[in-house]
Each structure stands twice: as structure tokens, then as C-alpha cells.
User: Fold this.
Amino acid sequence: MRHVLCCLFFCMAGIAFADVSPLGGQEPAPVIPSPATSSNTAVQQSNEHSAALTPMEEATQLYRMGKFDEAIAQYDAIIGNRPNQAVAYAGLARCYLKLKKPDDAYLAATKAVAQDPSLGAAHSALGEVSFRQGKLQEAEADFLAALKVDPADARSYLGLARLDQATYNFKKAKVSLDKAYGLDPADPDISGAWVQTRSRSEQIKALEDDIASPSNYYSRVEKAGFKQRLSILTDEVAHPERTCTVASQPESAEMRLTRIGKRDFAGLDVQVNGEAARLVLGTVSSGIVINGRIAEKAGVKPIAQADIDGLGEQNPPEVYIGLAKSLQVGPLDFHNCYVTVVERASPRSFYDQFEGSIAAGLFYSYLVDVDVPHAKLKLRPLPSGPATEDHESAAMDSSDPGARNFYDRYTPSQMSTWTRMDRFGSAIVVPARVNDSPPELFEIEAASKFNVLAPELARERASLKPDKASAHLEGSDGKVSGETTGQVNLEFADLHFNAINVISFDNARVSESAETEISGYLGFDLLRNLHFIIDYRDGLVHFENSPSPE
Assistant:
């Protein structure tokens, strides 16, 4: 099915962060979002019987209506009256997560487990907090612990689905989602994630319900995303030919990378409706973003307005999703593709300085071989999947002509030493250590000029110094002020680097959108010295040092 999904996409120096739709037709499997679209029928039904609700049921209803502060007050009242303390603490934890207060959520969740270790909801709440902290192994253990004491804990199945989604185990994710939905279809997060595995007609109905709902469960940005997605889905139904398929797909291909801009990013030449554009090559899993100048010259047709939550100190730029009839990238000619257009970029922002960016994940049907020092991009055949794979066992509704099958990650024997990467939105991440820290999640992003540390990690593991003169980035909507700069030792994928330059700035919005802690970015300053190969189908990456030619 041709999913057009809200994606996490950023480019730094410029740093750009946009909760916008990527290029359609390029994702190999559906994203399990949290939260996403859901029906508000259950909330409406519960309102009809509000007089009969217990205090705990009332708190749950307040939470599901998005009245998080009122729900917190109700949970606090329950805790003050002593009974059901553990259940109330678990509810508090989830409210604090919605209010983007992970530290408060952690305290509440640990109290829930301490109060009643036999309560499944306590363990699953702690699992959700661990997921937000980027502690994925701990989160999995928490969800499994919850199901051990309570096999009917729906939130644990949702949590496992999110973990499986992030680790490219899409079939397992769907199985867990089906179980979660069967246990609690009224939960907005569960129903929202579940409906995105269904047919387009069901998704359209759910989106219409959510847009019309008076509930405050979803933020303004999320509701704007619903409207955008509804426009795209409706357009897909009206125009089934808009699949972003390659007219004639070669078995392999090779393209030249060109230095672009003062920062010497890796650029890729693209023809957008026949109009030449040189786009910065990024390593996210999806998305082509162009500026308004290129879109106007190329005659890109607007389809839907988009909301952007950009990094910067000015106003967010105006963005829309458009249709490009043709995208010529080397020997590949993609037809009828959705692209994101930054219509009016702020001065000195990324999309003011550059014509756009192209995700290497566009070529997900190949092994994407990026040799930056030798300025080459090669597309090579993917290894064959296991012969025993049953692609029909987890298919979506077959009545949907765009129905798609689900699969789990497969690691061929010849790739057994490769690094497994995870995916959140369109961001791809690997574990990395900073000055002998425990493994933290770092995003791989060739369209980020700088290597970046989150402030907390920088304070704990690095000795950085204030540097107002140089620690400035140009984001999607203007400058972003870095806090500190310095050097660290960095280790990832069996590679060790000493005295790597890094900067630190407040990246809370990036982690909040990913709904897990992104502790840093491996930027172009580092990647420019590497030869790396990415398997976007199964979430595998291989790095090796490749010194620049003399």
C-alpha cells in the first residue's frame, strides 16, 4: 500500500526539522505511529454514561479526551485516598509522557511498579517511559514483564509493536497491534496505530472522525498532520496511478556525487519535471524536499498544505505537499511522486541556501552504497530473502487493491557482521558511545553538517565549552544557537574515532517527535570520511574508513 507518512526529517547546518509527508510509494512497510489516527466513538459513548464512572474510570476518560492536567488531578486524588495507588501512578506516568515531561513520568512509573509488582499496567507504563528514554532493551523487558503477570495488558502489546516497528520487524508489529486492538479498541493510541495497517477507506474514515472530534488528545500539529494525510489518501484513491514507481528499473546503477555549497555536502543531480536541481544527499529513510524556487520552475502541483515544526529562531516556513510527474535521478526515472515543498524559506535557512534534499532511502529496493571520499553513489542488488518467508500470512485486507504484505527483518549470512539500525519516523539510528558512555541512540544524517550531542549527554560525558561565535546553525526557519562545542571520542559500528568535533544544542523537539531519546547525530563532518552501505529494507548498515584520494 502506498503510505504517505508523517516523517522525522532534519538537515543541519541547515538543521531542518519537519513533521511532513515524505515521497509517496517508497516505504517498504507501514509505520506504527504513536499517537496516530483513531476513532472517537468510544469517548462519545463513555460520555453518555459519565454519571456511572468510578474515579479511576473518570481519570481514564479524561486522559483519553486529552484533558491531561485534569486527569493528573484525578489520579492524585485517588493516590491521596490510598486505594489503587499503583494503577493511578501508571496513569500519571502516561499523562506526563503526553505533556512531554519524561522525568516526572519516570518517577510515577517506578512508583507504580514499587507499589504493585504484580500489576501489568505498572510494568507497561514503565516500558513506555523506557522507550521514551531511548532504552529499548529495557522497554522490551518491561513489556514482557507486564504480559507475564497480565496477558491482557493491551498497552504492552502496543509497546512491543512500536519496538518491532523500530527494529524492522513489521509482521511481528502487526500481530502485536491486532492483539492490542482486540483487547482495548477504545484506546486512542492503539486504535490509531491499528487503523494505519488497514485499507485506505478505513484510514480516511478514521482521519475524518479525528479531525471533527472536539477531543484535545491530539495537538495542533498532529491534527494538521491528519488533514495533510487525509488530503494525500484522498488524492491516492482518486489517482491510483500515483505510485512513484520507476519506469525502467536497472539491476544496478552508479551516480556521481558532487560537492555542494560552502559546506561541501554530497550533492546529487536530479531532474524535477525536467528542471535541473542539485539536492543534498541525506541518509534518512524517505523524503524529497525542494524549495519553492525549484518547485515553481518545475511546475510541481500542490496537493496538500503541510505543517512544519522547524528548528530555528524565526517563523516556520510555509510548506506544502506537491506532485512531481517525473523525478530523473541518474538512470532511474520515477513517475508521479509526492514531494515536500518549502515554499518560502527564511533567509540563510537550509532551503534558502540549497535547492533541496533527497533521501538515500528513496532507493530502498537496492543496497545503497555511498562512498563520499570517492564521490560515488552505487545502487546494488539486495540479497534474496529466505525462501520460506510466507508473505501472505500477515497481509492487510485483500479487498483493498493497494493492500501490502508485512515482513520481518532478515539478515543474510554475508551481512551477519553489519550493524543493525533502527528507524523512528524516517530517521535511522545506531547505538554509539561517547567517551566510553553506555550505548546511546544516534541518528545517521549525511545532510547534517555537524556531529551533535544532546545537552544531557554532553553534560554527563563530555567537556564542552561555550562558543557563541561558531556554534550557530542555519535551520529550516533561521538560526539555531548551539550551547557548547568541543571534542569527544566516539565509537559506533566497531569503528573508533578520537577527538571528533561536536556541538551541543537543545534537541528536545527532535526526541519528542521521535518519541524516543535521540542523543546525537552523526553528521557529514564524520561521514565524509567513510564509505557506508545501507540496506533500507532490513535495517542494516556497514561502515568502513575510506581515506580521500590524493
Q: What stands out?
A: The CA atoms of residues 275 and 297 lie 7 Å apart. Residues 41-238 form a domain with the Serine Threonine Protein Phosphatase 5, Tetratricopeptide repeat fold (CATH 1.25.40.10).
